[in-house]
Automatic annotation (TrEMBL):
This is Serine phosphatase regulator of sigma subunit. Signal peptide: none annotated. The lineage of its organism: Bacteria, Pseudomonadati, Thermodesulfobacteriota, Syntrophia, Syntrophales. It comes from Syntrophus aciditrophicus (strain SB). Keywords: Hydrolase. The keyword Hydrolase applies.
Length: 412
């Protein structure tokens, strides 16, 4: 090291030491008074302690080109400021103040090459600071976003688990009815969806089946489905009406009345969600069903000979304050017949060429599967629409529930 370089370094070091306390105080006062409301809320003495530590780190960076201390300081202060709600621009502006305070001092105390070298070193140091703060803030912000997303994903998975519990029970846990087979498929387009369906054991002879489609996806729609699925439980009074002192002491509520009650309980203004529902009551002993449809895609009554009927009788969407009555219709069914309940997600999707699957493909497919067992029917529908979609993501939840009526075994 030459004598001249040593002298320039010594002089710069002496200057920085000489003015360190004054610069730290002026810097803290500027932070307190000029930068932002968040800095103004910090106690002045706390800010002085911070600027003093920063000044010491800058001395090593400016004089010896050693940024390790300033990097450690930036890492620590970035965490504190980010947790305190400070923006990156506020912090960068705060550290630019150091440059504006130090330049007049350097111009006053240094000359010639010593001044030019000091100014260049200061500018390099401040550029390093500004970019380092930007990197730290962005990396820490991204890490926090990832952590929040992870927590959100975990919450959604937990909610999806709850939603799965509201679906029909697995085959081995379902109530056994010797002349009825039931199967279902559920493919939410997100972790948690707006479809829900289930089976209600009304009494020894009657089963209730419902399928609901709430507009939208995610938690808001799922909350509505949770609420309605609980309302339809027999003990809640919507589907079974108690008759104390009479025999039997209960009455099965007709589908039209169930939909009317839901229409009153779930007005549009409550959730600002569209809601469609099909509710079917099946008398498994007499071979008859009664249903009402609130603007839901009509279930298919698929006869054993391949003909089918659409169960369309009903009214408008739930929540329209009874502007139309909910009509009911009765139908007879025979062994080998099937009922297929579904949401419009089974046909309202396109492939990678933009072609809509649509009802014109869906209905002939169902008709062609009339000879298969109900579980196989649902399997073939899912396989067919997956082949058509060719890997494209489904834009809506896909829900299917099938009921097959069989001959009742005769005991000898």
């Amino acid at each position: 090291m030459t004598g001249r370089t040593f002298s320039m370094t010594a002089n710069l070091t002496e200057v920085l030491h000489k003015y360190s306390k004054e610069v730290a105080r002026q810097w803290a006062e500027c932070l307190h008074q000029e930068v932002s409301e968040l800095y103004a809320r910090r106690p002045l003495e706390e800010l002085i302690a911070t600027t003093s530590q920063a000044g010491e780190a800058y001395l090593a960076a400016i004089v010896h080109h050693d940024c390790s201390q300033i990097d450690a300081f930036i890492a620590r202060i970035s965490k504190l400021r980010l947790e305190g709600g400070f923006s990156l621009s506020e912090v960068q502006k705060a550290f630019e103040i150091y440059r504006t305070l130090l330049i007049p001092i350097l111009v006053k105390e240094l000359r010639g090459d010593a001044l030019l070298s000091a100014l260049q070193s200061l500018n390099n140091c401040m550029s390093h600071t500004i970019f380092s703060f930007s990197d730290y803030f962005h990396n820490m912000a991204n890490a926090r976003l990832m952590e929040k997303q992870k927590k959100l994903d975990e919450d959604l998975k937990a909610a999806a688990g709850i939603q799965q519990c509201l679906l029909p029970r697995k085959l081995e846990k379902r109530p056994k009815f010797e002349n009825v087979d039931i199967d279902w498929k559920f493919m939410p387009c997100e972790t948690i969806g707006g479809d829900i369906f289930n089976i209600i054991h009304l009494d020894e002879d009657h089963l209730g089946f419902y399928m609901i489609d709430v507009s939208g996806h995610g938690v808001p729609s799922a909350l509505v489905t949770f609420s309605i699925s609980q309302a339809l439980q027999p003990q809640m009074g919507y589907t079974i009406r108690k008759r104390p002192g009479l025999s039997p002491d209960y009455e099965i509520v007709p589908p039209g009345e169930v939909l009317k009650a839901l229409d009153s309980e779930y007005p549009w203004e409550r959730f600002e969600k569209f809601l469609t529902i099909i509710y079917v009551i099946v008398d498994i002993r007499s071979g008859r069903l009664i249903y009402s449809n609130a603007a839901h895609p009509p279930p298919i009554l698929l006869h054993a000979d391949g003909t089918f009927e659409l169960l369309e009788k009903g009214g408008t969407i739930i929540g329209m304050d009874g502007i139309l009555p909910f009509e009911e219709e009765e139908k007879a069914f025979s062994p080998g017949d099937k009922i297929l309940l579904y949401t419009d997600g089974v046909f309202e999707f396109t492939n990678d060429e933009g072609e809509l699957y649509g009802e014109k493909r869906f209905y002939p497919l169902v008709k062609s599967l009339s000879g298969l067992a109900v579980g196989k029917v649902l399997d073939e529908i899912i396989l067919t629409i997956e082949r058509f979609a060719r890997g494209e993501k489904f834009p809506d939840d896909v829900s299917l529930m099938g009921i097959e009526f069989k001959e009742e075994s005769k005991t000898t």
